[in-house]
Amino acid sequence: MSRARKAVIPAAGLGTRFLPATKATPKEMLPIVDKPAIQYVVEEAAASGLLDILMVTGRNKRSLEDHFDRNHELVSTLLSKGDDQRLASVTASEDLATVHYVRQGAPLGLGHAVLCAADHVGGEPFAVLLGDDLIDPRDPLLPTLLDVQERLGGSVVALMRVPDADIGKYGSAAVDRDSDPDTPRVTDLVEKPAPGQAPSNLAVIGRYVLSPELFDVLRTTPPGRGGEIQLTDALRQQARGEAPGGPVHGVVFAGRRYDTGDRGEYLQAVVRLACEREDLGVDFRDWLHKFVAEGV
């Protein structure tokens, strides 16, 4: 099998959970300390060798393109001031990868957003990284998915064990218990199962490496939960042997992950990453200890 070389990042969502902040600012541009959440995702793709990135956007997302484009005026100003530190932070996002853009014309679901990438991807396996999932760079996940897909073919999804009470927020995977527990064969998938209906507590999180045949599956997948075309529904057909491009394997992830689409977890990500910054961490941790001790 050829190794995936391209990444797709769906970024067309409205960000309603963060209103009013996202009324005029894309949720992907909300900062984690001083860097937009979307930059962490692009950095992850680039660090995994995926330097050809397609971002699927929508209305009011122009600032995403601006962020990864060169700002000549700002660069010139920082150069004239000799501000090398800020200059490096600005140019870092410009030099990560070659980023392309396509618009999802209507909010028809994640499956439809991925389908918008078909012409760009062509007939190769490809990675999908959801912008709301931030994987801690110290716990790399994407390289393992790429390796497994190259070795076993088909499609590969990232899985994470979650409390039973939370599985209804995710797609839930049934797996072959006789297969490798670290890279199990997925036999079925259920999108946001009702209480008591989940096949396991293995949740599908926002990292995938998919076979190109999935585009044909998505073209014939009817709207599912929420009236949207669900990526999980198309992968389910591959997992059950009902569509080409399978099998589907999982990679069970036990590292650090932040759901930056959830307000509480977004705040946790900001605090955790700020605490670990060399330039901010010491003073911020001292303040945080005092704040917690005061019981405010």
From TrEMBL:
MF terms in GO: UTP:glucose-1-phosphate uridylyltransferase activity
Catalytic activity, EC: 2.7.7.9
Domain of life: Bacteria
Signal peptide per UniProt: none
Pfam families registered for this protein in UniProt: NTP_transferase
Protein name: UTP--glucose-1-phosphate uridylyltransferase
Domain called Nucleotidyl transferase: residue spans: 6-241
Catalysed reaction, written as an equation: alpha-D-glucose 1-phosphate + UTP + H(+) = UDP-alpha-D-glucose + diphosphate
Family to which the UniProt record says this protein belongs: Belongs to the UDPGP type 2 family.
Database matches in InterPro entries: GalU_uridylyltTrfase_bac/arc, NTP_transferase_dom, Nucleotide-diphossugar_trans
Record organism: Streptomyces carpaticus
Keyword annotations from UniProtKB, A to Z: Nucleotidyltransferase, Transferase
